Request: fold
Amino acid sequence: MGTRSSSGASASSEKSPLEGLRVLIVEDEALIAMMIEEYLKESGCQIAFSARRLEKAMAYIKSEECDAAILDVNIAGESVAPLAEVLAEKAVPFIFATGYGLQGVDQKWAHHPLLQKPFTAKELQVALLAALARVPK
Reply:
């Protein structure tokens, strides 16, 4: 009962490619934000900040740094586009999470990964890795 398998030991020693990544979450639905936070923690990420309102996210990104961001397209009736602009200027990779599908995202941002809600932890990991791969070092 208390024995460890060798596969369990090797899995715990493998470092996630997202380990230590500081992620900004911008999501107005508390349960979805909590789910995203849990998925990120399971992937080894750190939560840089979690904002339920656009103004809070804008204030954060103007004074603090993060390595990546997950943006709901519509935050309490406001477009997340102004925040996407700031993140793009700072070369911070980001992904969109939306229930609206592609029609909810401005064509300007079509090259950024899009997660269709609901999504899995694995889909979030894949989207984050794709966003990180797009940013020049």
Remarks:
- The first strand starts at residue 22 and ends at 26.
